[in-house]
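Lab notebook, bench 4. The sequencing result for the construct came back, and we need a structural model before the next group meeting so we can plan mutations. Quick request posted to the team channel:

Model the 3D structure of this chain.
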Amino acid sequence: MHRAAEPDPAGGSALVADWAEAWARRFQARVERQTVEPGKDNVIVTLDFEGDGPCLLFNTHMDVNNPAGQIWSQPPFEPAVRDGRVYGLGACDAKGSLAAMLTAMERLAQRSEGLRGKLVLTAVMGEEAGGIGSLHLVRQGIQADGAVVGEPTQLEAAIAHKGTYMRKIRFRGRAAHSGSPHLGINAIVHAARFCLEYDRLNESLAQSPHPQLGPANAAVTIVHGGTRQNTIPESAELIADRRLIPGETHQDADRELERILRRMKEDIPQLQVDPIEVVVATIPSQTDESERIVKVALAALEQATGSAKKAQGFSAGCDMSKLVTIAGIPTVILGPGSLAEAHAPDEFVEIAQLEQAVDIYERIAREFLKG
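Done. Here's the predicted structure in token form:
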């Protein structure tokens, strides 16, 4: 068994960017490196086809979730192939999509007859940190007529995704010897009360499900508190993770949080809470089913799998939010791998799905860019 260590922040996604650039240059694509933070670039790969036509955007990310503290059966940064799967950190989230998109582009470059317009792959940094790389892209004015975001969807086409609202909340109490607890104020008790209240929020959220995503949800995902085993804790902090569905805003979630803390204050007069800190904030988005990219993606899936497909939802946040809400690009989310494996120990992607993803991405591009 292997306990995952903290990844080297100095390395970032630079090695992946170098690898993607080298591959793209082998099939004569235009490549641009766009520096977002020191040592952390977006890689923009473009295939220009003859004649005027639409622009199709492929988007996926090079960075990975931090695995620190997880227990893996193998070293997370050393890929392994066994039982028809590729194992390793980021295998499905989202190196599988990146490799499949580059392979599809290579095929299109080798056989480009009948194609018009251009295909652009944006391999971005910082998606796991709230979409820093894609935010930089759209602020630089990137435009397209349709986009495919590579995330683990089990090769289903998703047209809506949840937004992310994460807040750090720190409760203040008063330290005392645990033999005389009445002299102190136990901040962990207050944090625990909040956990219960925040969990109950799910009951009301369940009353208004989204057609593709189901209901919004809320959970406390991290709790820290206390200093010594014989001391009443004077502070405790937690992360509240609220997932938003289209139509909800961060202001809505702020008001929910304020109501919960206000009710707690009524029951616990000594409750003290520090100013709440923003951890991650991304907005939900959706694409109308009538958009051409949606129809093309569903048709490509049906051709590749032999069965009819319906648009799905993606229960996590992703960079579709920037493309749709800021750049106004109709977008679908589609990629190999399961969201159940993302951010989990022993992450993997099925090799068969990788191969099928290449076929699907190629089909989407050929149909969207046909003359």
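The CA atoms of residues 1 and 73 lie 4 Å apart.
Will bring this to the meeting.
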